[in-house]
Amino acid sequence: MTGYALANVLHVLAVVIWVGGMFFAYMFLRPVAGQQLEGPARLKLWEGVFARFFPWVWASVLVILVTGFYLIFGVFGGMGDVHPSVHTMLLLGLIMMAIFAHVFFAPYRRMRKAIAANDTEEGLRRLGQIRILVGINTVIGLVTIVVASGGRLPL
């Protein structure tokens, strides 16, 4: 497998893990958990889900950055030589990464502290913040996939 092929495959897999995980959590797990679980149980569920999912997101972010920059600069010759869709993908990806970093270091950290202190109201408030930000990131991720898969197509 060439460097280009390996980087491309790893890049796509990392995007699928991250965006697919958010889509599943937001569209399927969240509504069912909200309907079937009371506040404390819902918080414990999400604490466990995030504890398992977020390391995969960090790994995905790293893989996306390394492979993306390798493809841009190592394969295609730099930002001046890539299609405008690549510029859009990079911008959207960086926005997503910033949103994720905020989720991880602010509301997620505060949600975990609230759970440890048995403060269900505060934990649910922080979970609500995470829900909004993950929803935004899911939409941005889906738009990025559209740009990536259709970026060179005439509209």
TrEMBL record:
UniProt cross-references to InterPro entries, sorted A to Z: Cu-R_CopD_dom
Recorded GO CC terms: membrane
Protein's UniProt name: Membrane protein
